[in-house]
Every structure is written in C-alpha cells, then in structure tokens.
Design goal:
The protein has about 190 residues and is mostly helical. About 60% of the residues lie in helices and about 10% in strands. Helix 3 packs parallel to helix 5. The longest helix is centred in the N-terminal third of the chain and has 25 residues. The relative contact order is 0.14.
C-alpha cells in the first residue's frame, strides 16, 4: 500500500523483500525456508547473510545510487531479532554477520508492525486454514516469537530516530493512514 501511494505521488520506488529479493535470494529462500529438514543455526545465520549480501550488491545499492526509494520487507534488523534473539547467537556474532553482508548500509527509516505473540500465532493459524503456504519459521514455539518481538522493541528503544513501532492489531486502513503520516513527515 505504501509503495502504491508513493508511486501515485510520482516518487520512484523499488519494492523488495528478504529473503528472496534477487534470483539467488529466491533460490536461497526456497532452499532454506521451504525445507523441513533440521537446519543448523549457523547455516541459517549464514544463509540469510548470503542473501542479504547479494541483495545489497545487486538491488539495493544500485537503486539507491539511482536516486530511488527502496522499500524492503525485512532487512538486517530481522537477523538481529530472529537469529540473534530467536536462535541465541551472541550480539557480536550477529552484528559481524550483518556488517559483512551489508557493508554498513542501514535503512534511513524502519517500520516495525507490532502485534502480540498470541495475535501472530492466530494469524499464522489462519493462513494455514486458508491453505497459504507455510514455511519452517511459522512453526516455532511462542517463546521464540517472544524473544524476536522483544529484540525488535529493544532496537526501537535504542534507535528511536530510525525505528518506528506501529500498532498492527488495528484495521489495515488505520495502519496505512499512520504509515503515510510517518512517511510523509519523514520525506519532507
């Protein structure tokens, strides 16, 4: 919704996601998220780092260099939250992997759409009932998701100039209105 709104305002926008924003990333996503074999935590950390390195080099930096706005569904904060807090890697190790993959490139603004863990579990169950494709990250225990959410909220406290928390338990139109207010103010 954000990308469409910005494009309607004449702003050049590139949308992407992680994992999977490049052809290599899509292959890594399929190999990693859609496997049901036990994946070693270090393999998970490095797979996401490899995807991000490719993504930064071949999509994000070129788009930014061309003066475009990049909207990415997830980026390095996801590694900090999921592999760091979720899987228990040390902050030092996670930050090292992030720095190697991104070359220090950080977003100017990050929006975290916050919901409770209970609501997240309900939404994942609803997706399953609607026969939406699940991946192995959708079947973690609630404690995992709590650690991930807490990590995101911790980033928000440490970096309030970059990181915004949005109450995502409301209707999509209300969330979108808040996002547009934030983005419009930010872009000005």
């Amino acid at each position: 919704m954000l990308a469409y709104e910005l494009q309607a305002r004449g702003i050049d926008v590139v949308t992407t996601c992680e994992p999977g924003g490049t052809p290599l990333g899509r292959a890594l996503r399929e190999a990693f998220l859609e496997t049901w074999e036990q994946v070693a935590p270090m393999a998970e950390l490095l797979a996401f780092a490899a995807d991000r390195a490719q993504h930064v080099e071949h999509l994000i930096r070129p788009a930014l260099d061309a003066g475009k706005i990049v909207i990415s569904d997830r980026y390095a904060d996801a590694t900090y939250a999921y592999q760091g807090a979720g899987r228990g890697f040390s902050e030092e190790k996670v930050l090292q992997a992030i720095d190697l993959a991104t070359g220090g490139l950080k977003p100017d603004l990050t929006l975290f759409f916050d919901i409770t863990v209970d609501e997240a579990v309900c939404r994942m169950a609803a997706r399953e009932e609607a026969h939406t494709k699940r991946n192995r990250m959708d079947v973690e225990e609630s404690e995992f998701y709590t650690r991930v959410r807490d990590a995101y909220l911790g980033i928000a406290k440490r970096e309030p100039e970059r990181f915004r928390v949005i109450d995502a338990q409301r209707p999509a139109d209300a969330i979108h209105a808040d996002v547009m207010d934030m983005i419009t103010g930010f872009l000005q």
